Amino acid sequence: MAAPRVSVTMPCYNCGDTVGRALDSLLAQTLADFEVVAVDDGSTDDTGAVLAEYARRDRRVRTFAVNHGGVIAAANAAIDAARGAYIARMDADDESLPGRLAAQARLLDDNPDIGLAGCRVRFGGCRENCAGYAHYVDWTNTLLTPDAISLNRFVEFPVPNPSIMFRRDCLEAHGSYRDGDYPEDYELLLRWSEAGVRMAKADAELLVWNDPPDRLSRTHPRYDVDAFYRIKTEYLARWLADNNPHHPTVHILGSGRTTRKRADMLLAHGVEFAAYYDVDPRKIGHVVNGVEVRDRADVPEPGGAFCVPYVASRGAREDIAGFLEGRGYVLGRDYIPAA
């Protein structure tokens, strides 16, 4: 049997209530030349039976079971079994819109310099009850170009994992998901970006990203905020060593307790702080662990410092970017956001 153009890999665990909708959305794709590789990760519900029925009805669905080892092992097992030149990811509780595979494959076909293709996604949860996640989705949907994705990768995960499609060549060159005390999907993106893989998105809403209360990113410590900052700090420190003309010295935008806790992770990687900067007059003039808190207006002129904004409150990142760029700072050359 000839290898398909696209393989969609789907780890499945106790998802009997949702995986049928996920598979229906894939079998309705406008692109015909694909396969679904669905791995049953030792489910204890009827997931296996649902998968077997879909495989019986449609030869494009391939499924097999493994002993329960978690989402990383199941995702990698599916990737190992994939036969396509392009490999897509999808979760068993999400839905792909009909043009997803065609649009992402076309993006990769038309842009040989792009190694990973995403898309804009539709938030499938309750915006009122899950406002933080919804705002995160909105933010990811603004990042479409390789530069936008690359220069914002230390803020948060810029390409939702269930929406990606990548070249097999990238997988062979840079490896698949790694197991550790960090979010494996974010680590893969950081690792591939560091290796020079360019990423872009199809400018269309092609995936419904649902947000059930038992989603792993809500419940597993591997996906908590501290885990994200630990892994991003490791990669950010190496990026600064390669791109900061004043290395190892940086200027930190923000001086609150949470900001300092997260920025201070850089210290263990040999980064040094010249100063913290703030707009709160109650903080200006304080000295924290030997580092002075200065008025934001005292940030050096462009070329005299490299700044790392670490303020994560809603609207603050945009405000700081506007301030720095109003001073003549250039994203990636003079500053890089990290929150």
From TrEMBL:
Which SUPFAM superfamilies would you find in this protein's record?
A: Nucleotide-diphospho-sugar transferases (SSF53448)
| UniProt domain Glycosyltransferase 2-like: residue ranges | 7-171
Where is the chain membrane-spanning? none
Keywords of the record, alphabetical order, are: Glycosyltransferase, Transferase
Q: What GO molecular function terms would the record report?
A: transferase activity
Q: Which domain of life is it from?
A: Bacteria
What InterPro entries does this protein's entry cite?
A: Glyco_trans_2-like, Glycosyltransf_2, Nucleotide-diphossugar_trans
Similarity-based family? Belongs to the glycosyltransferase 2 family.
Name the record gives this protein: Glycosyl transferase family 2
- Native species of this protein? Pseudodesulfovibrio portus
